[in-house]
Design brief:
The complex is a heterodimer of chains A (287) and B (254). Helix content of chain A is 37%, strand content 24%. Chain A has 287 residues and is of the alpha+beta class. With 254 residues, chain B is an alpha+beta fold. Chain B is built from six helices and ten strands; from the N terminus they run H-E-E-E-E-H-H-E-E-E-E-H-H-E-E-H. In chain B, strand 9 and strand 10 (210-213) form a beta hairpin. The chains are: A alpha+beta (287), B alpha+beta (254).
Amino acid sequence: MTAYRPGIATGAPSDRPGLPAAYLSATTSSFTAFLGAHAPELLPPTLTEVPGVGDLGASHGAAHGTTIVAVAFPGGVVMAGDRRATAGHLIANRAIDKVFVADENSLVGIAGVAGIATELVALYQMELEHYEKIEGAPLSLEGRANRLRTMIRGNLGLALRGLPVVPLFAGYAQGRGRIFCYDVAGGCYEERDHAGVGSGSLFARGALKKLWRPGLDADGALRIAVEALYDAADDDTGTGGPDLARRIYPTCGIVDADGARLVGDDTLAQVVAALVDRRRAQSGAGG
Amino acid sequence: MSIPFYVSPEQLTKDRAEFARKGIARGRPVLVASCAEGVLFVAENPSPSLHKIAEIHDRIGFAGVGKYHEFETLRVAGVRYADLRGYAYDRADVSARALAGAYAQTLGSTFAQESKPFEVEILLAQVGRAPQQDEIYRVGYDGSVLDEPGYAVAGGAHDVLATALRDRLDPTAPLAQVYAVATQALRRDDVPPAPLEVALLDRTRPRRTFRRLEGDLLAAGDLDAAPEPEDRRPRSSNPQTQHPDHPRPDDRQA
């Protein structure tokens, strides 16, 4: 006689109708691990599913993004990302989002191939919420940062074939904001004052070095994050500047003691208008 | 070689049903009731950490009675089912009715085929925009599903409780009133009272409606004494449609 296991099919997975065994097992609190066991087709693609050789990103024109910056201030972090996606020399989309609320008190921004990045963020958001519901408590901030690390590492094969994604993670815990930077291999490095990822991050980080100072408030951090993106858009074709005619402003998020939330377009319209006015005054009539 | 005794299928089913019913009747009852503010869950639960009431998805709540490890297994399965659906389609496509069906199949086939049935009863509720749109399902140990609009009770002496509540519960009454009636009905003279576990599927919240409540605050009629932080859970499964200020061509809600 077989041992009693409540609700778990005793033979082949299909020998009993109802929820399959993967649903009823108590082995994991991870949504990704559950999908891998039960519905792997819903996971982002891996190298094994994309056979062949060559640079996929260049040859198939997958849309790429861009520049994300994070700026720390006492008690929180501001994260901002531009809105452009490019495919080769073309602009694939001028209004996509690259900064997202990951959960109640963290933000995630992703640079790289837009399709895979969006897929990873959706999975990451569900991963955090799923864990919280199953366990009854959210993951620690370091736990969330590490979870993202393994997800990026899983994409290393595709990154080597020209489809990289690189995230930036910011969260609030124990009274302060923290910023975590990643590389394509999944390495996770904590940054103190400010950080940037993406094609224009070289210029954005240069700007932040001059603009950032200790004792910024949230508004000040938002202002310099938007300004850093403005400078990145100046020199990098992959980064879009604010589009005043279409009212397309950078996607900005704040995480502090009140939790993580996205900044409204009304606020950003003022920040961008003030920035553009100041630059116009500085450059005189010649531009 | 020994020859097994013949047991008629009728007798076998009867024995199993009695076995499961006994296990369930030992537990204290759980009550789910619609009210003006949402769907209220109340259970007597001596343990502050082993919950009988839990969140499944944005609009769906769960309550289990019977053996803890068995309904906990079903709760986890329910969260996985709901999250998989929400991830594959959209958050709006997760429904309590579909999950009740999945539970019914699992409980029913276990009851018929395994050596021991589940000793649990499950209540599933989905909150709507008005009390008339709330859905409450009771899934029995044998996989039977009952649609019980207004309120439902599971666990020990549930039929006595349900009858007692029939004329006293008004699904459109305010939360404090429904809570008072519910707690009064749950308390029994012959059993010492246990701490109450209380939760609400709050119909005023946009996405994540489930919140745990302190019974003492509710008894004082003061729901706002413990304000919840603002609901910032993503409104859709696709990250590209989550920003509240970035209108999309198909953004018809709002």
